[in-house]
């Protein structure tokens, strides 16, 4: 989509999506992935090594809001947000900060079985995704859309955004 050479993933879990993205990188590409849970991080590292892609992937362990400032001077071509939903608005702000014109930002799990659109369905995750949508709608430097997906897990969806102008001065 954007011929990414530098990818940031917020939320690794077992590394499944990480491996798909790493496979799309050029030989000199770089993927930084952030994972809060030590067990998930260890599992993902084993998957990266087994797939022979660990040389492209840098896994940073710890809460993303603690590790994102370490990347403050970096920019990424593609950013995938798939972590704790209550912090999605903050992850989106960081994604913008780490973007440049043309960066693609994808935020996963934004439909949540239709709960996000149902005001009666209150949870920290649903509130976080609603706040993310408000921030994205107000952000003039991105073009965005969201769509529903349907699969064996039921229905969910993702938001896809393209940064339309340089964010940094």
TrEMBL record:
It comes from the Bacteria. Keywords: Methyltransferase, S-adenosyl-L-methionine, Transferase. One of its GO terms (biological process) is methylation. One of its GO terms (molecular function) is S-adenosylmethionine-dependent methyltransferase activity. Pfam families: Methyltransf_3. The keyword Lyase does not apply. This is Predicted O-methyltransferase YrrM. It comes from Salibacterium halotolerans.
């Amino acid at each position: 989509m954007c011929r990414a050479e530098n990818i940031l993933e917020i939320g690794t879990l077992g590394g499944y999506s990480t491996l798909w993205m790493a496979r799309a990188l050029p030989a000199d590409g770089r993927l930084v992935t952030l994972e809060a849970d030590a067990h998930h991080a260890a599992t993902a590292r084993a998957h990266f090594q087994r797939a022979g892609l660990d040389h492209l992937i840098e896994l940073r362990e710890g809460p993303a809001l603690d590790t994102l400032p370490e990347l403050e001077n970096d920019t990424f071509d593609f950013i995938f947000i798939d972590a704790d939903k209550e912090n999605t608005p903050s992850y989106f702000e960081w994604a913008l900060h780490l973007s440049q014109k043309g960066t693609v930002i994808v935020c996963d799990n934004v439909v949540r079985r239709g709960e996000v659109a149902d005001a009666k369905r209150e949870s920290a995750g649903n509130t976080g995704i609603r706040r993310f949508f408000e921030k994205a709608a107000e952000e003039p430097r991105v073009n965005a859309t969201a769509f529903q997906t349907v699969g064996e897990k039921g229905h969910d969806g993702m938001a896809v955004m393209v940064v339309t102008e340089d964010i940094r001065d």
